[in-house]
């Protein structure tokens, strides 16, 4: 088997521990939580094989993009932390009014 793998140019598999893998595409993103990730070398190329359940989200900006002025506005209006405001903005897909309402409602429930 090893000889056959060498003939194909395939070298050892390395398992990478990952919490999640996020693939951003035009208009959507795919999140794979707790994936099994294998790293292989095939004919001089590195290949990553990702296995696990996927969640597809359509539309919206990639998770890491939050407008700084929107973030500061939500923090000032809701008296929350930047992390809480960012979470609310991401959940509201960048809609500032929805983020403020969401945080205000959360505070009232506590």
Short description:
With 110 residues, the protein is of the alpha+beta class. It has helices at residues 2-7, 68-78, 82-91, 96-109; strands at residues 10-17, 20-25, 28-33, 36-42, 45-51, 54-58. The protein has 4 helices and 6 strands; from the N terminus they run αββββββααα.
Overview of the molecule:
The protein has four helices and six strands; from the N terminus they run αββββββααα. The protein has two domains: 2-58, Ubiquitin Ligase Nedd4, Chain: W (Single Sheet), CATH 2.20.70; 68-109, Helicase, Ruva Protein, domain 3 (Orthogonal Bundle), CATH 1.10.8. The protein is an alpha+beta fold. The strands form two sheets. The protein has a three-stranded antiparallel sheet. It has a three-stranded antiparallel sheet with strand order 2-3-6, with no helix packed on it. The longest helix has 14 residues, at 96-109. The chain has helices at residues 2-7, 68-78, 82-91, 96-109, and strands at residues 10-17, 20-25, 28-33, 36-42, 45-51, 54-58. 37% of the residues lie in helices and 35% in strands. The mean pLDDT is 83.
């Amino acid at each position: 088997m090893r000889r056959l793998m060498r003939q194909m140019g395939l070298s050892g598999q390395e398992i990478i521990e990952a919490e999640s893998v996020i693939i951003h595409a035009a208009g959507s993103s795919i999140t794979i939580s707790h994936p099994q990730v294998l790293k292989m070398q095939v004919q001089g190329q590195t290949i990553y094989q990702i296995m696990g359940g996927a969640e597809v989200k359509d539309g919206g900006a990639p998770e890491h993009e939050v407008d700084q002025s929107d973030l500061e506005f939500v923090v000032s209006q809701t008296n929350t932390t930047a992390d809480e405001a960012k979470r609310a903005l991401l959940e509201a897909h960048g809609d500032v009014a929805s983020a403020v309402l969401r945080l205000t409602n959360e505070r009232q429930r506590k």
